[in-house]
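Students often ask why we bother predicting the structure of a whole assembly rather than each chain alone. The short answer is interfaces. A chain on its own may look different once its partners are present, and contacts between molecules only exist in the joint model. In this exercise we take four input lines together and write out one structure for the complete complex. Read the inputs first and try to guess which parts will touch.
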Amino acid sequence: MSTMNIALSITKTIQDWLIGMMPEGVASISAMVIVALIYLAIFAVAGLYLVLLERKVAAWFQLRIGPNRVGYWGLLQTMADALKLVSKELTGTIKADKFLYNLAPYFVIVSSLMALAVFPFTKEFQAFDINIGIFFLIAISSIGVIGILLGGWSSNNKFALIGAMRSGVQTISYELSVGLSLLTMVLLTGSLQLSEIVETQKDGWLILQGHVPAIIAFMIYMIAGTAETNRAPFDMVEAESELGAGFHTEYSGMKFAYFFLAEFINMFIIAAVATTVFFGAWLSPFGITESLPWLGVFWFLGKTLVLVFLMMWFRWTFPRLRIDQLLTLEWKYLLPINLANIVIMAIIVWLNLTIKF
Amino acid sequence: MTNEALQNLISDWIPDLEFTEEESQFLNITVTPENLHQLMTELKNNSETKFDYLFCLSGVDWQPELGVVYHLESTTHRHMVVVKVKTDDRENPTLDTVCDIWKTAEFHEREVFDFFGIKFNNHPNLKRLFLTEDWEGYPLRKDYEDEINMVIK
Amino acid sequence: MSYFSDIYKGIKTLLTGMSVTGKYFLTSRKGAITQEYPDNRDTLKMFERFRGEVVMPHDENNEHHCTGCQKCEIACPNGSIEIIWDRGIDEETGKKKKKIDKHVYHLGLCTMCGLCIEACPTDAIVWAQNYENSTYDRTQLTKVLNRPGSKLKAGVED
Amino acid sequence: METTAVKSNFKSEEYFINMGPQHPATHGVLRLLLTIDGEIIKKVEPDLGYIHRSIEKMCERDSYQQIVHLTDRMDYLSSHINNEAVCLTVENALQLEIPDRVKVIRTILSELTRIASHCLWWGVMGMDVGALTTYFYGFRDREMINDIFEETCGARLTMNYNIPGGLMFDIHPNFVKRTKEFIAHFKTKLPEYDTLLTGNVIFQKRTKGVGILTKEDAISFGASGPVGRGSGYSCDVRKHHPYSAYDRITFNEALKTEGDTFARYQVRIQEMWEAISIIEQLIDNIPDGEHKVATNAVIKLPKGEFYQKVETARGELGVYIISTGTKNPYRLKFRSPGFSNLSLLNHIAVGGKIGDLVASMATLDLVIPDIDR
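Now the answer. The structure tokens for the assembled complex follow.
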């Protein structure tokens, strides 16, 4: 058992290994850089395979076969896409606001990658376990919107402008219900730190502990989460049939790849937050694989992929909401239910009617 | 209503109307451009005729004269009539518009202007519908010459 | 309180919608409706009435049925058939008669309407079933239907 | 319509957007010049002519058989019904006696074309409103009909199977078997269309009360087909002026009165059910006999004017021939359904949002070559 968990808390192990070689300050910075590079590499590849998963799942929904030409069973398809995008020429409109036009993609990709650092993959396998975990997550995900607004406005294209304005309105209003639904769950756990949250779920996942209000909070969170990443029934931002390609019409090559990759990593983040908060990140259902902490990663990724599949299922079934219906859905339906839900959860926690195993 | 009943009902509205019935399945009324508009409003609003559906408005180049043929149908009585109007000046043919009676005429009249050059006074925005603004000549006229596009077999 | 009832009804319709796509997702093993075109090129067979291209069938000793009567050229709406004929002496009767020299067929102009085959009195031209007619250069689309050195089958009168 | 935004000193000026010749929502080369203020549409001005081939000028130099093949290229989704329109006009002008077999086959093929066109419309309507999988379900059913046409007529889209006087050649031996297979298959799939899209609450929110067209406006704008019937104006040519075998079958006209996008959608779905019942009534008793009547090679219509109305998938197609007795018509005018349906777009789209414009344009089911001719 002890041999297994040496390599677990990566940040500490790398830091100790580095301290032996160089002075204190430099060691911690280089440790952070190394961890960041590892995460960047893993999640660039993970993003590519999420895109492939989306295209395959879409094909199966639509009686098609999906990519099967490049590589065995289409596995290298998105790799080929990435290479194509890298080699493409970076075109752009002349009258575009050059500085903001080039800055926009970095906002989006940075905000989605930063949010990845906080997730508890297994026991101590977590880049940064900061004590304001969820609050940090919500704050980071609102930076992405600035990138989209900048991209749409600065590319001097009317369709992009409309797309950007729509995304601004949409994300701001849906962050509200993302935050509130996570708040109801924090009532149960009592702390914002993600590892703490997973700790309290040792005796029953939060969705079971909080029973009815937790399920309502989960549904609200999933709806608001899909809206947050501008996907599925809420994809007015790049509504193909109305605006063509929405805010990233004028982007090509690597800049477009950033927007495209960021959207899929955001989807992964929304699913990962849902698994940590609602389904007990790396906790196996009844503690069956407690002994091997390494298996936690499998549980965490499995649950996240199930939720990612759910979001893909939304995308390929539902038509698109109009922009004003989207706002009425948020302000007139999700918000009131959310507030009522918090009150119910508070009462339940106060009378501690939660189900504990 | 049968063609005869239509004929003598309409003939006492406006003096010189010609009615023919051979060579066509419907009652044909030929009217002079001056009282075209009056006849049309009467055909639409009169309670017995009530031709409220203008289903076909076509420009025709009858060689010397340029004309427009209106096919009208009543959605209540289900009878049809054809109204023809001809003007013989080919340089600046103008007729009254009927788009204030039937809204479908607005687009059809722009098409007739585009292909025949017949101007319709007090038409909301009479400009070419299909061809580009700077296209000279009116293609569907019989005397239209265009070596590039017209392949005479 | 229609507020809650239309939320409930809404979610119910959303779930039924998802059930349809879910059913297709689970039964996607039965195979897709899309054809993998370049891979199934040899097994892909067109129906026998498919209008691929107009061809003139020649029998074993290189004879065809085209008498050069130009009925197909007249029937063609967009001039994609040109018949080049010359005067010839008919063997038996010794009279002057039209002989077909070249039956030029512009596949590029043809709209596959079938009026020429309809108009041909001696059924000289027939539909072929090939569906890959694209070429890299337009002149390859102008074809001469009667093979060089072929002649009219004896006894075919228009 | 929700209350519009409060316009205090907040000044917003309109700007132009080109829903240009290349745009996913226009299904073809139609350019809409939109004047919009933020998201609300002030004015829609269509700019046509991108695919104008002046078919009417070409018809003045072609013989009547050659004109029939031109109509395939007008409304390519109901090409069979267009061919039938010209053939009927010529046959009525020559007072030809058409064998019963031809009439029944023409009606079956027309109804099959209508189902194929409505399947494509339904798939594309779903795509316009955002549900991308409907496209593939719609095309799966349309492909089966295309195979039936390919086997019988030899072509999938531009059939040219009708000629003045009957059919070019007789139907294929297993035409009846394939059609029955398709009907059995489609009867199980059409209810799925409803559960997937019609019942969907998001779809209903996007289409109910959008693009309202009253009955008087429908008549005054000359709207025909499902667009007119969505507003309660009963304009089914198959009912009021029956042609070919429509007088011997019983079917009811799909009529709705709300006149909004959802009503036009429901009319088309019900029309598909009607088409299935029509085919079922006819498919078993196709009378046998000649498949065409011999007409002389060069058809000369008697002097005079001839008009024939036909119900295509989009509305009422009228063929108006003025003939002076020569072998090609003096003037031939096609009354195209799409042309009048497009003219009312400005009337129903003003005041709505861009999403509404796309949704109501999808239910107008515009085919641009049919408008430009």
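Check your guess against this: Residues 145 and 192 of chain D are 18 Å apart (CA to CA).
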